[in-house]
Amino acid sequence: MEKIKILIVEDESILALGLKKKLENLGYTVTNIAASGPETLEKVTQNKPDIIMMDIVLKGDMDGIETAAKLNKTESIPVIYLTAYADDEILKRAAVTEPYGYILKPYKEKELKANIEMTIYRKKAEQEEILDYEDVYRGVTSFISKNENSFKKSPIWI
Question: What pTM, to 2 d.p., does this model score?
Fold first, then answer.
């Protein structure tokens, strides 16, 4: 099975390196560490991760929530927030970006693993649902194409 690739977004280098070590101990691959919103956007285009572990409070003009909102416009990468903040205003702002998880610091390896595994499962289920829709669409359009003449011959009753 292919290792899950994770991008860490954390502006405190000691915390980022500690998280990297925990994730690697759990069997995940850390593709990069970004310390700001703009750097995150750049790293995502360089190497598409499967999951982004995003701190909310980042140095610079763009926080983690704004960064996730920008990513949501162009990418379909699950975000799990890692933060020390859980006040109502931040929770409301974060919820709008539809995160796959929200972990309060300090966190344990079990919390990381549980959130990552749930994210993987949810993302896979969403992709399968989209594929099912596409299969139905292809089936219907194929049926219509093959039977186009019989539809033209049939009177339409109103």
Answer: 0.80
Task: Give the single-character DSSP code of 65.
Answer: H
**Distance (Å, rounded) from C-alpha 35 to C-alpha 32?**
10
Judge: domain 5-123, CATH 3.40.190.10.
no
Tell whether the model's pLDDT for residue 79 goes beyond 60. Answer: yes
Instruction: Pull the structure tokens for residue 11.
Output: 């502006």
- Burial readout 64-82 (b: 16 or more C-beta within 10 A, e: otherwise): bbbbbbbbeeebebbbbbb
- How do the domains of the chain map onto residue ranges? 5-123
Contact (Cβ atoms closer than 8 angstroms) between residue 17 and residue 25: no
How many whole angstroms separate alpha carbon 140 and alpha carbon 151? 14
